[in-house]
Amino acid sequence: MIIDAHSHVHDPVETHLRLLDDAGADRTVLFPTRPHPERATDLDSLRQEMSVLERAVSGRGTGDDGHATAWRELDDALAAHPDRFIGFGSVPLSLSEDEVAAFVEREIVGRGLRGIGELTPPPGRAGRVEPVLAAAHDHGDLPVVVHGFAPTTEEDLRTLATLAVRHPSVPLVVSQLGGLNWMTAIELAKETPNLYLELSTAYIVFAVRLAVRELPERTLFGSDAPYGDPVLARATVERVTAPGQVRDLVLGGNLARLLNL
């Protein structure tokens, strides 16, 4: 089974399904999203969508800021295509520990979602993820996915690794291979058995090759669609692996094990 470990709700959803079909991907993890860069028709409209993304990953979102719409879009996509989409849901990191626990029980477990993410702690504040890890443990060790590219810092990655050690039964997935800090991400994952690396948006092929070589059972094929393309992401994995067990693990086997599929 080929499983894309990282994608966001598309508008329209049918566009996403065509991308998955083109890539030969059976299923994909689907995160809710406020920005929709796939809607952009020119540079100005893309800047507008990306400004929403920038506010989200820098922790500057205010009020509802599109959250209700994002959750509704996720619900609709999951209901329409349960055979293709594996639902994950994000958690507001401004909540107290008790509020996080209640939110995970109500909005993640209560909705039948399979994991938590993509979390976007503000730069320098990755410690905010810890209450989410505690709640994930309380509900059968749900996998937790955290944004790994900028503005996530190298120190944030070290904080996430420390949190993973404190919650050793919870799979903690760093997305985008840790961005520009990919070598640090690989080093930390090698030392931390429950730390996983999702491979989308890696900016050099060598980074993916090295990550898979060092962590064949804890690297995950992902596209970060619509920011990335499932066809290209799969081709990158296949370019750096030979046909056989390791390739099969990275393209879906590792994630299938995490999700008990």
UniProtKB/TrEMBL annotation:
Domain (Amidohydrolase-related) ranges: 3-261
Pfam families tied to this protein: Amidohydro_2
Gene3D superfamilies: Metal-dependent hydrolases (3.20.20.140)
The species this protein was found in: Actinoallomurus vinaceus
Name this protein carries in UniProt: Amidohydrolase family protein
Transmembrane segments: none
InterPro entries: Amidohydro-rel, Metal_Hydrolase
